[in-house]
Specification:
- The radius of gyration is 37 Å and the shape is elongated.
- It is an alpha+beta fold.
- The strands form 5 sheets. Strands 10, 11, 12, 13, 16, 17, 20, 21, 22, 23 and 24 form an 11-stranded mixed beta sheet that branches.
């Protein structure tokens, strides 16, 4: 076999005759390949396995955490601090009881903790490919050297001839050579639940969509019924499953909006800190006329560097996101990747698969047509509860006996079982037949009861060539209620004269109608006129145009049981019963969820492998699209360039008959247009797009392992409406993150300015040590920040468009607030610091002259408590709010204040943190100055209210 003889690409095998495909692969339909062929092809094509590209190792992920600019600065601070401690230790300048290197150890501990937090979040290995590999069959039957043998699936090569039977998982892509009643479930690959009837004799156009390639079978799909012989055409990474694996591995994870904002925040803080450090050092050198106090200036610089970095922020954000995940789980949304909690709040477009996501993944009969009348059928799912309506009015079955007659055919010509399990109606068997049993149940016809009235004695099974099936039943007499009186059930009395058997036929409406010569009217039959025939065909077309799957039903009385294989003789001169149109019905709660999405400024888009008529019907019904809106098919999309798709992607809300690469292109085109995309899906075909999307949302019940591993979030109840709840939670989380960033950074700027001011105004020494600053940033800031993270949502959170995912963390006034509050913090603290320094250095002062530093430390900490209480609301005064609506803030304020006082009044803690005892007057002054912070923020709210402005 020459490589040049092969057709270009896998897409053409469906367009070749069987013999041509066998010739191109130099194979034989009966004997398969020879041992020599197999060895050559294994070397040429490699094993039939999915290959995995190397990703980052655990060590690389861990090291990457320490490339964060804020952590790098802290590492530098720790090293310089350690060097200064070493110099003091060698020169004997340590104070009595002072522990050397404690600042260095504390800072490095924080660096390591933050690194571990980042590693834990990021190191969850992507297992999508591992889940994909599970879908490949371990063993397969093939013809080799004219013998049928069983081999490992990885040994398959192009040209092998596989044998398939019901229940088998298909191990490679292949062209059908021959088949018998072959049905394959391709839902994992195409997303559509219904089994596909395969036909070996077809020759299809090259541009045929993946879901319509009826002469091809695909790796990872499952044989539901029948048997076949298949020519293997593609193995390993060249199969459709392999293409998905390639796309999965090619998709690179982008940083989430929160991660981008935290990177920006770090850059701004570190840059600002270094500039301020340079100013302070330069100012100190100029003021001293040289470098004689360089060690003191370095200590000031170290304290400023530690002060500017919000060491507690990563931990607070992680805990906040974790709390968000817990709240989401209670609403049936399982978050797999923590940053996805906040990312949900930025979503602008939700691309949703149809089957099982927007719909129930249950076929439900919507419409029935008999005797010139079309009835609407109500009800949800497989529950046999519902009404028949004509022109919007409920009708009784006595008025329309044709419905009962048609329902008998639905129940008898059926191989499935409708049963109630744990309070839920479920189907054992084909979903289409399940829908027919549910319809019959709504008409009061139960299959179990009718099995005794019409005992099945023979059948003509469904085949893809005949496109119909027939069941022959023996008519049994039943008790009529009168003494010793028995007769045929009234529902079928009009079917018979004296015949002992009835044949019910269902299948393609056109073919079944073509074999019918009479029509059932009321309780009798009449010749089928041409006018009636045309009217039935028009009704069939109208049902199909609404996206319904339509079946035709007929019957025929028989005097004898037909012999096997006599279907062409007996399936003639049928009596027409009617049409049944069914649909994978929309979930009832999705309409409201779609409307809520629109109210929140989020655009829903349907992307499905189903036919365009069905897709349009569902999308229009749910409000995703309006009548006349543009729809794109996979074929149209295939012919578009990326630029053309990008130009059209905002105009299209329905995509039909799409393949996995199409879904990926759609998501990428939306992202290039600046949209923030959530993609929902459950099949293997959805996995690359789920991974590419800003938020990948998998289905928990019907979803494959592959889709779940590629996703950021899993809907435990497969409910589209859950996305709305999760999006709301995401918006609340982002609002609260902004709230505690305001809280933390406002105080950090105050700390930096206070430290910088000390040497510039001539005060001796550094007011705060790195260890004390770490205490403030981790405990004094951290505990109230965590409490602020659980603030309840604002009433209009889902009545506004999403904030831009690309907005700066400082957008919408947050930056100006931080600077303004930081300056106020600094002014208050510097004023206190000046007073405290004069107080402790006054003649006759009995305490430690460094007690002014402890007063500065205490004032900064307690002022933050007032800040935490006031910042709960941007606009409402504290006295206007229920103090117990967030009990955690009150608890955090009380606990943090007690802990701060312990650092001043408990001797071991006082020694370790380098604080000094304060008398009641000094503590009272600290509290008084601290209260000014609370007063200022409340005064700002009053001012903004008077000016008619809304705070950030």
């Amino acid at each position: 076999m020459s490589a040049n003889s092969l057709p270009e690409g896998a897409a053409v095998w469906h367009s070749l005759e069987v013999n041509k495909a066998l010739d191109l692969l130099d194979s034989n339909a009966d004997s398969g390949l020879t041992s020599q062929d197999i060895q050559q092809r294994l070397q040429q094509y490699g094993p039939n396995e999915l290959e995995e590209t190397a990703g980052r190792s655990a060590w690389e992920i861990l090291l990457d955490q320490f490339k964060n600019i804020m952590l790098l600065m802290l590492i530098g601070v720790a090293l310089i601090s350690g060097f200064l401690d070493l110099m003091r230790l060698q020169s004997g300048n340590l104070k009595p009881g002072e522990v050397p290197f404690k600042d260095t150890i504390a800072i490095l501990a924080i660096v390591i903790l933050n690194g571990i937090l980042g590693y834990v979040q990021e190191s969850r290995a992507e297992k999508a490919l591992a889940a994909l590999k599970k879908m490949t069959s371990p063993l397969v039957r093939v013809f080799r050297d004219a013998r049928l043998v069983e081999i490992a699936a990885k040994e398959l090569v192009p040209g092998d001839v596989m044998q398939l039977e019901a229940g088998m998982q298909i191990a490679a892509d292949g062209r059908l050579i021959e088949e018998s009643n072959l049905q394959v479930r391709e839902s994992a690959l195409t997303g559509e639940a219904e089994a596909v009837n395969k036909q070996a004799t077809l020759k299809l156009p090259e541009e045929t969509d993946l879901g319509d390639r009826l002469n091809i079978v695909f790796q990872g799909t499952e044989v539901v019924q029948g048997r076949a012989k298949v020519l293997v055409t593609n193995t390993g990474m060249t199969t459709e499953l392999g293409k998905i694996a390639t796309m999965l591995q090619a998709v690179e994870s982008e940083p989430t909006p929160l991660q981008q904002r935290m990177t920006q925040l770090g850059n701004v803080l570190v840059t600002g800190s270094l500039i301020l450090v340079a100013i302070v050092v330069a100012g100190g050198v100029i003021q001293d006329g040289g470098f004689k106090n360089i060690q003191e200036l370095l200590e000031v610089s170290l304290s400023m560097a530690v002060a500017v970095v919000p060491e507690g922020l990563p931990a607070v954000i992680t805990v906040t996101l974790a709390l968000g995940t817990q709240r989401m789980v209670r609403q049936n949304a399982l978050i797999r990747k923590l940053p996805a909690v906040e990312t949900l709040g930025s979503v602008t477009t939700i691309c949703s698969d149809k089957t099982g996501t927007l719909t129930q993944n249950k076929m439900v009969v919507q419409s029935v047509s008999t005797n010139d009348k079309t009835f609407r059928v109500t009800g949800e799912g497989y529950a046999p509860i519902g009404d028949f309506q004509l022109d919007g009015q409920k009708i009784s079955l006595e008025e329309s006996p044709e419905i009962s007659a048609l329902s008998v055919a639905c129940a008898v010509c059926n191989d499935s079982v409708l049963q109630k399990e744990q309070g839920e109606w479920a189907i054992l068997g084909d979903p289409t037949e399940g829908a027919l049993l549910t319809l019959a149940g709504k008409a009061g016809i139960e299959k179990d009861q009718w099995s005794s009235k019409l005992t099945r004695v023979a059948e003509f099974p469904f085949s893809s060539e005949r496109k119909r099936m027939s069941v022959i039943s023996q008519v049994q007499e039943v008790a009529t209620g009168e003494a010793s009186s028995r007769s045929v059930d009234p529902a079928i009395a009009g079917f018979l004269q004296s015949e002992p058997y009835l044949m019910f036929t269902k299948g393609s409406p056109e073919l079944t109608l073509g074999r019918s010569t009479h029509i059932h009217l009321g309780n009798h039959t009449a010749p089928l006129t041409e006018k009636q025939r045309q009217k039935i065909l028009v009704e069939n077309d109208q049902m199909a145009s609404k996206g319904l799957r339509v079946l035709g039903f007929a019957y025929k009385p028989l005097a004898q049981i037909p012999p096997e294989g006599s279907d062409e003789v007996f399936e003639q001169d049928l009596v027409w019963l009617g049409l049944v149109g069914m649909l994978d019905a929309p979930r009832p709660e999705v309409r409201l969820a779609v409307q809520e999405c629109r109210d929140a400024g989020i655009r829903p888009v349907m992307i499905t492998g189903d036919h365009q008529l069905t897709a349009r019907a569902i999308a229009t019904d749910l409000g995703i699209a309006q009548e006349g809106d543009r729809l794109l098919t996979g074929q149209e999309l295939q012919r578009m360039t990326d630029q053309e798709l990008e130009q059209n992607v905002d105009l299209v809300s329905i995509y039909a008959r799409v393949s996995p690469e199409h879904k990926l292109r759609i998501v990428q085109a939306l992202q290039r247009r600046g949209r923030f995309v959530a993609m929902t899906g459950d099949g293997v075909n959805d996995a690359p797009a789920l991974k590419q999307a800003d938020i990948g949302i998998a289905m928990g019940i019907t979803g494959t392992d592959v889709s779940k591993e590629a996703s950021d979030m899993v809907l435990l109840d497969d409910n589209f409406a859950t996305i709305v709840s999760a999006t709301k939670e995401g918006r609340v989380v982002y609002t609260n993150i902004r709230r505690f960033i305001k809280y933390i950074l406002g105080s950090n700027i105050g700390e930096v300015l206070t430290i910088a001011a000390a040497p510039l105004i001539g005060l001796g020494g550094v007011p705060l040590t790195p260890l004390q600053i770490l205490w403030m940033n981790l405990v004094t800031d951290g505990l109230p920040a965590l409490a602020l993270a659980v603030e309840p949502p604002e009433p209009d959170v889902m009545k506004r468009p999403p904030f831009s995912p690309r907005e700066s963390i400082f957008a919408r006034g947050l930056g100006s607030y931080i600077i303004r509050i930081g300056i106020i913090f600094a002014i208050i603290t510097i004023a206190l610091m000046w007073w405290a320094y004069q107080h402790t250095h006054a003649a006759g002062y009995q305490g430690d002259r460094d007690a002014w530093k402890t007063m500065v430390f205490t004032t900064l900490c307690i002022a933050q408590m007032g800040h935490a209480i006031a910042i709960r609301s941007n606009n409402r005064l504290t006295i206007e709010m229920n103090p117990f609506s967030n009990i955690f803030v009150l608890a955090a304020v009380v606990v943090t204040t007690i802990l701060q006082l312990m650092l001043v009044y408990v001797p071991p803690l006082r020694d370790f943190f380098g604080t000094h005892y304060l008398n009641m007057q000094e503590l009272g002054v600290c509290i008084g100055f601290s209260a000014l912070m609370f007063v200022w923020i409340e005064a700002e709210k009053i001012f903004l209210r008077i000016m008619g402005k809304k705070a950030v």
